[in-house]
Write a structure and sequence with these properties.
With 443 residues, the chain is an alpha+beta fold. The chain has 17 helices and 13 strands. The chain has two domains: 147 residues, no CATH class; 193 residues, no CATH class. A hairpin with a 4-residue loop joins β9 and β10.
C-alpha cells in the first residue's frame, strides 16, 4: 500500500457555507456506505457472514474519507486527525494510518483564494512588506497552510495562513459530525459522544484564534527556556494578524520521516528520548502541555540535531490537582499495582464509581498493559515490542464489547493523547528509550 503522504499536494478552494460543507460530509458517509455494501456483497458471494463494523472501517473507506476530509479541511479534518492518533485503541491500523496522512498533506488553497486572504489581512499592497514570498505551501493542514517569506529587513518567516471561513464553519461542522458518529460501526451504540465533540468544538475555536496561539507560543517558549535540543520559533507580532501567525522559519523534516530508510539508531533514539522528556516536563514542571502530538508538529534538523516545536493552538494549562492525580497514576503503573491504579484512575476520572465492573476492570487492565514501558529496566525497544498491537486488540474489544458507555473528562483525553502520541512516535521510529528513567525524577 502506498504511503498517503507521498501523493503530491493538490489545490482546491475551501468549501464555505453550511450547506456546501454538509453536502461534502454527506457524500463521505454515502461513499463509505456504498463501499461497505460492495464489500459485504463480495463476502456474501464467498459464503462469509459480513460484520458491519468491519465493513465500514476498511482501507478503501479510509481512502474515501481521507480524500473528502482533505478537501473540506476545518473541523471535520481535525477530527480525522484525532481519530488517526487516538485510533490505536479503536480503529484498524491501516484505517488510522491513512487518516494520519491528513496531518500536513491536505488540499491547499489555489493562488487566487490565497491572494484574497493575504489582501484581507495585510491590505491590497501586502506584497510590499516582503522581499520574497513563496506561493507553494510548505504544509497544508486542517486549519491553515504554511508559507515561507522573507521580510524587507531580512527575517525569514513561516506564515501560517488560516483558511477562509474555517472559524465560522466549526459549529455546523461539529453538528454534522455528531450525525456521522451515529454511523454503524464507528461508535458503541450506548456511548454518547456529545461531551467529547463539545470539547473538540471549544478547542477548535481556540485553535482558530491565532492571536491566542501567539500568546500561548510565547508563554510556552518562556516556560521551556533555553534548551540545547528543543527550539520554539519566536513569534513576530508585526506580521501576525487574527488569521496569520508569523514565526521564525524552522528548518528540518517532520520527525516521523526518520523512520523511512536507514537512519542511524542513535539518531532515532535521540529524537524519541528528547520528546519523551519533553512530554514529562510539560506535565510535571511546566504545567503547560501542547496537546496535539501530530508528527508534523515536530521538525528535526539533521545539521544541528535540534527539534523545532510547532503549532501551539492546542496548548493547555494543567491544574496542580490534575498534575498530582496523574503523578499518582504514573507511580501506580510503574509499580504494577492494580488496586492503586484503580484508585488513581477513579480519582482522576478515567473510571466512575457507577461504572460496570467489566468496564472498570477493562480500563484498569488496559492502563496496566500500557504502562509496560514504564516498568521496564533500561531502554525499552519500541521497535521490537508488540505493545501497540496488544493495546489495540484489547482496547477495541473493551470499546465495543464490554458495555463502554462513557468517556473520561475531555481534558484527560487530550493529555492521554499527548502521551499516547509520543509513545506511538517512539514505535514509528523503532526507538529505544529508557522510559522509567525519563519519568524517574518526576514520580
Amino acid at each position: 500500500m502506498s504511503d498517503p503522504t507521498d501523493t503530491p499536494p493538490r489545490s482546491a478552494p475551501v468549501p464555505q457555507g453550511r450547506t456546501r460543507r454538509f453536502l461534502h460530509l454527506s457524500r463521505a458517509v454515502g461513499e463509505m456506505a456504498a463501499g461497505a455494501a460492495a464489500e459485504g456483497l463480495q463476502q456474501l458471494a464467498r459464503g462469509q457472514r459480513p460484520d458491519l463494523s468491519q465493513l465500514m472501517l476498511t482501507p478503501a473507506n479510509a481512502r474515501r474519507l481521507a480524500e473528502r476530509l482533505s478537501q473540506m479541511r476545518g473541523a471535520v479534518m481535525k477530527m480525522g486527525q484525532l481519530m488517526s492518533m487516538d485510533g490505536q485503541g479503536v480503529l484498524p491500523p491501516q484505517f488510522a494510518a491513512l487518516l494520519g496522512g491528513l496531518r500536513d498533506r491536505a488540499h491547499h488553497m489555489p493562488a487566487t483564494q490565497l491572494t484574497e486572504v493575504l489582501q484581507a489581512e495585510y491590505g491590497a499592497d501586502w506584497h510590499r512588506r516582503f522581499r520574497r514570498f513563496s506561493f507553494e505551501p510548505i504544509a497544508a493542514a486542517s486549519i491553515g497552510q504554511v508559507h515561507r517569506a522573507e521580510t524587507l529587513d531580512g527575517r525569514v518567516l513561516a506564515l501560517k495562513i488560516q483558511y477562509p471561513g474555517v472559524r465560522r464553519s466549526i459549529d455546523s461542522d461539529m453538528a454534522n459530525l455528531a450525525l456521522l458518529a451515529r454511523t454503524p460501526g464507528l461508535m458503541p451504540a450506548v456511548l454518547d459522544p456529545a461531551p467529547l465533540l463539545e470539547r473538540v468544538r471549544q478547542q477548535l475555536h481556540a485553535e482558530t484564534d491565532y492571536r491566542a496561539e501567539a500568546r500561548a507560543a510565547t508563554e510556552y517558549r518562556a516556560r521551556l527556556g533555553p534548551d540545547p535540543v528543543l527550539n520554539v520559533p519566536e513569534v513576530h507580532e508585526d506580521h501576525s494578524t487574527a488569521h496569520i501567525l508569523a514565526t521564525d522559519f524552522a528548518a528540518g523534516v517532520a520527525i516521523d520521516r526518520l523512520a523511512v530508510g536507514e537512519q542511524p539508531q542513535a539518531q532515532r533514539d535521540h529524537v524519541a528520548s528528547a520528546l519523551c522528556r519533553l512530554a514529562v516536563r510539560e506535565l510535571f514542571q511546566m504545567r503547560l502541555v501542547q496537546t496535539d502530538p501530530n508528527f508534523g508538529n515536530y521538525l528535526f534538523d539533521t545539521a544541528s540535531g535540534r527539534i523545532s516545536l510547532l503549532d501551539f493552538g492546542a496548548t493547555e494549562p494543567v491544574a496542580p490537582l490534575r498534575v498530582e492525580q496523574l503523578r499518582e497514576l504514573a507511580r501506580a503503573l510503574r509499580d504494577g499495582d492494580e488496586e492503586r491504579t484503580r484508585a488513581a484512575a477513579l480519582s482522576a476520572g478515567f473510571i466512575g464509581a457507577g461504572d460496570a465492573p467489566a468496564q472498570v476492570q477493562g480500563v484498569v487492565g488496559l492502563m496496566l498493559m500500557s504502562g509496560e514501558a514504564l516498568r521496564h529496566e533500561g531502554p525499552y525497544d519500541f521497535g521490537a515490542s508488540d505493545l501497540f498491537a496488544r493495546v489495540f486488540e484489547r482496547g477495541r474489544a473493551q470499546f465495543f464489547g464490554a458495555g463502554y458507555a462513557r468517556t473520561p473528562p475531555p481534558d484527560l483525553i487530550f493529555l492521554q493523547r499527548k502521551f499516547a502520541g509520543t509513545f506511538m512516535l517512539c514505535g514509528r521510529l523503532r526507538a529505544r528509550v529508557d522510559v522509567k528513567r525519563v519519568f524517574g525524577g518526576e514520580i
